[in-house]
């Protein structure tokens, strides 16, 4: 572990990075008086951890290990969330027992399928999500409607839809028939419903949406619902 990992870190972040829970939930644990440092109860999430033994409900918290990254083939009909008030299925219910606590990198809509990255490290998740990372996301999209002749040119220049500005996107025609087409769409931003909205700006309706890659990581032949670790991510 490098020297930067030994620098003092805020308690809530220390707990979250260990994989026990999210930072928000760590702050709740601290507020509930369930966290101690060297046997003394801590009442502020800003408390700096610098070598103390941290416990939650009396159980020692292990310092964060090197980040781990996983690829899942998200099937349609499930949410990227830990729980749902409507009891709809979630991707986290697909993770086999024995896996570490994982954080999703971004989101895929309920009926969107394909590559979903998950990691043990909140910092890594944020870095991969940020538009400033310039990581390309590529989707294979089945659409209904007539393809405008200027679609690719307009998408490449960036456009606005319902008052929201979208960065330039690359669109390629994979195949087409009367009233239907499969497109390859590549983005670098990842706003909510971005693919659907960009295509809606051209009068197209998305019938199926599959993410095939995220940065250097590809879906490949990973079967729906399966998850594998990506080695050498840190």
| Number of discrete helical segments | 5
Query: What portion of the residues fall into strands of 2 or more residues?
Result: 25-35%
Average pLDDT rating:
91
User: From the alpha-carbon coordinates, what is the Rg to the nearest angstrom?
Assistant: 21 Å
Computed structural class = alpha+beta
SSE order: EHHEEEEEEEEHEHEEEEHEEE
* Helical coverage, percent range: 10-25%
Provide the low-confidence segments as ranges.
1-5
> How many β-strand runs?
17
The general outline is elongated
Quote the distance from N terminus to C terminus: 12 Å
- Mind summarizing the main beta sheet? 9 strands, mixed
Short description:
Helices cover 16% and strands 32% of the residues. It is built from five helices and 17 strands. Helix 1 (11-17) packs across helix 2.
Task: Describe the structure in your own words.
Strands 7, 8, 9, 10, 13, 14, 15, 16 and 17 form a 9-stranded mixed beta sheet that branches. Strands 3-2-5-6 form a 4-stranded antiparallel beta sheet, with no helix packed on it. It has helices at residues 11-17, 23-31, 122-129, 151-157, 194-200, and strands at residues 9-10, 35-37, 40-41, 48-49, 54-56, 59-60, 69-74, 103-104, 113-119, 137-144, 159-161, 164-166, 170-177, 180-187, 205-214, 217-218, 227-230. α1 packs across α2. The longest helix is centred in the first third of the chain and has 9 residues, at 23-31. With 234 residues, it is of the alpha+beta class. A hairpin with an 8-residue loop joins β8 and β9.
């Amino acid at each position: 572990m490098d020297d930067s990992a030994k620098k003092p870190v805020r308690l809530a972040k220390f707990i979250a990075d260990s994989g026990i829970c999210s930072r928000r939930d760590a702050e709740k644990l601290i507020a509930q008086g369930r966290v101690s440092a060297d046997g003394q109860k801590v009442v502020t999430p800003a408390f700096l951890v610098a070598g103390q033994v941290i416990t939650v409900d009396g159980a020692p918290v292990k310092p964060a290990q090197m980040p781990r990254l996983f690829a899942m083939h998200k099937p349609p009909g499930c949410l990227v969330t830990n729980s749902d008030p409507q009891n709809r299925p979630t991707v986290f219910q697909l993770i086999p027992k024995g896996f570490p606590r994982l954080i999703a990198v971004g989101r895929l809509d309920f009926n969107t399928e394909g590559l979903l990255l998950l990691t043990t490290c909140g910092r890594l998740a944020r870095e991969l999500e940020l538009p400033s990372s310039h990581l390309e996301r590529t989707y294979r999209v089945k659409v209904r409607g007539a393809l405008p002749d200027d679609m690719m040119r307009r998408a490449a220049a960036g456009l606005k839809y319902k008052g929201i500005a979208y960065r330039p996107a690359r669109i390629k025609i994979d195949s087409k028939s009367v009233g239907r087409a499969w497109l390859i769409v590549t983005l670098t931003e990842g706003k909510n419903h971005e693919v659907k909205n960009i295509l809606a700006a051209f009068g197209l309706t998305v019938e199926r949406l599959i993410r095939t890659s995220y940065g250097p990581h590809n879906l490949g032949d990973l079967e729906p619902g399966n998850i594998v670790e990506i080695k050498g991510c840190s």
